[in-house]
Amino acid sequence: VQLVESGGGLVQPGGSLRVSCAASGIIFSMYTINWYRQAPGKERELVATISKYRSTNYADSVKGRFTISRDNTKSTVYLQMNSLKPEDTAVYSCNAVNSIAGKTYEYWGQGTQVTVSS
Questions:
Q1: How far apart are CA 22 and CA 41, in angstroms?
Q2: 54: which residues sit within 8 A by CB, 6+ positions away?
Q3: All residues at 6 or more sequence positions from 31 whose CB lies less than 8 Å from its CB, including other chains
Q4: What residues contact 57, with CB distance under 8 A and at least 6 apart?
Q5: What is the largest CA-CA distance in the chain?
Q6: What are the residues whose beta carbons fall under 8 Å from the beta carbon of 71, sequence distance 6 or more?
Q7: Which residue among 1, 16, 36, 94 is buried most deeply as judged by most CB within 10 Å?
Q8: How far apart are CA 56 and CA 7, in angstroms?
Q9: How wide is the angle at C-alpha 49 spanned by C-alphas 47 and 54, nearest 5°?
Q10: Torsions phi, psi of 87, nearest 5?
């Protein structure tokens, strides 16, 4: 199983960036996908979630600015980030979770750095 994030980089405040999480080795459509972020010296924060039914949830800090979506044909989840702020600077990681017959399967990507700075 592999989750590979991409699309991170340096962007100016107010700018936009889209990060992607491509999965392999799992039945992607059955998994809930979460985006987390962790800034230096801070705890990991759940940013956005998309279920296998495509229902979504967002942290209050990103609501109205970030959009999570999935393309099951490409086994990929996207996080579109608009109106970026310096406090959005963090390593963004995706996480895939599924529960089958009482057992939880959970996988993580390696993360991609997003830096918001002028």
A1: 27
A2: 70
A3: 23, 52, 96, 97, 98, 105
A4: 48, 49
A5: 49
A6: 77, 78
A7: 94
A8: 21
A9: 150
A10: -70, -5
Question: Residue with structure tokens 């699309």?
Answer: 7
Structure token digits, residue 73? 């044909």
Contact (Cβ atoms closer than 8 angstroms) between residue 83 and residue 61: no
Check: CB of residue 19 under 8 Å from CB of residue 76.
no
Buried b / exposed e along 84-112 (16+ C-beta atoms within 10 A): beeebbbbbbbbbebeeeeeeeebebebb
Share of the chain above pLDDT 90, in %: 99
Residue carrying structure tokens 């959005």: 88
> Which DSSP category does 72 fall into?
T
What pLDDT is attached to residue 54?
A: 97
* Span 22-74, pLDDT tens digits: 999 999 999 999 999 999 999 999 999 999 999 999 999 999 999 999 999 99
Total count of residues recorded for the chain: 118
